[in-house]
Amino acid sequence: xxxxxxxxxxxxxxxxxxxxxxxxxxxxxxxxxxxxxxxxxxxxxxxxxxxxxxxxxxxxxxxxxxxxxxxxxxxxxxxxxxxxxxxxxxxxxxxxxxxxxxxxxxxxxxxxxxxxxxxxxxxxxxxxxxxxxxxxxxxxxxxxxxxxxxxxxxxxxxxxxxxxxxxxxxxxxxxxxxxx
Length: 180
What we know:
By secondary structure, the protein is α/β, with parallel strands linked by helices. The chain has four helices and ten strands; from the N terminus they run βαββαβαββββββα.
């Protein structure tokens, strides 16, 4: 198995990175930053989100696991005290992958001639910098609403739902579909 490690860059996280690296190398795993089978994120949610975007082109091939060293984290399940258990789990057990729903946001420009696609693990915010934002919102390729306002925040079920609610946003169940 090939692994990579992403840290938030502080001294504690970097020291923990070295410990994890040495343990995994001792278990004969290969370090590979280009095509890892698993990425260990050492930090908080921001570090894991950074790793997600760094390897977004490999989401079908790469698993992610987080070691929480920050102040607030929901995606990082392991603590620094559990690193030895984590390493043993990675090295000796088959990976148990939990798929989180992703948010795909496609923005069309120039009357639909240009499109930009973004993937988000927690939320995406679309804002207008010049005038009123007018957008058709589609869920599963089905029109949900036409939106007019200065911005729109869309959260995944595992993402920043509280942030969305703080903006007075609606919470829609992931199984939503419009009945005819």
